[in-house]
Amino acid sequence: MKKSDIDVMPQFFDRYIRLVDDEDLMNSFFRHKNCPIDKKILNKLSNQRYAPGKWTIKDILQHVIDVERIMSYRALRFARNDNTPLNGFEESLYGNEANAVKRTVDDLLEELSIVRQSTISLYRNFGKEELMRKGSANNIEISVLALGFTIIGHSLHHWKVIEERYFPLLVS
Q1: For the whole model, what pTM was predicted?
Q2: 3-state DSSP assignment of residue 141
């Protein structure tokens, strides 16, 4: 199914979904399977911040991993027709507690790849009925299909942030 098959664009998550092309979800997962930024650049920038209080590249990679896991869990619950409303999560708490600074970029990229492969495996077995099922997370109704495009768009958002705000640190 395509992005245009999402019947109601969920508030808040629409900012990520809109970053993804209107293509088949599985094609999009495969096309955006890996971080598109060269590992050498990520290593050069790994512990830098573009402003005080902002995350490092390692923090961003960990954040993308954590959010994909959470969104995949939500997708699993909703696809299985579990209508129990889910709470939100505090991303800054996760970021502060993850200790990404102690990890290597290579290790984070490996985990990101494994998590994405797990997400692909999960979604590969959802039919149209499961993809169209909805649930509530953080008081926002969202479909399994929309969650899939949110996962992709969220990572695209962060790759863009890295390019726009961290790449300039390479020349200073």
Answers
A1: 0.95
A2: strand
